[in-house]
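Hi everyone, sorry if this is the wrong subforum. Our group has a chain we'd like a structural model of before ordering constructs, and none of us has done structure prediction before. Sequence below.
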Amino acid sequence: MNGFLTKWFVTFCAVLITERILPGIYASGIGTLLVAALILGIFNAILRPILLIITLPITILTFGFFALVINGIMLAITSALIPGFVVTGFWSAVLGALIISIFSAIINRMVSR
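Answer:
Right subforum, don't worry. Here is the predicted structure as tokens:
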């Protein structure tokens, strides 16, 4: 349970930072960001591995960059399901996914010390 809460907190912080610096992502409040981080974490745990396996050939051909598109799709799906959490377009979703990934890695490194 502690690991789950830690991952949720890290995802929340990364989504919060992304929402603050990227003009294409909006949230109506902290509660919305908490729910969005939870849903995004669930999608990344369940749906993302399935999509990565299905799209493995194109991911290999693009040297792994298509995985970033898949992350953007997960963010866009989260936006479609959470009222008050808006991702304005495809490129905002992909750039948002990249920023979330970078900040998640940084925050995970800080938390794991």
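For your construct planning: Residues 30-54 form the longest helix (25 residues). The chain has one domain: 2-111.
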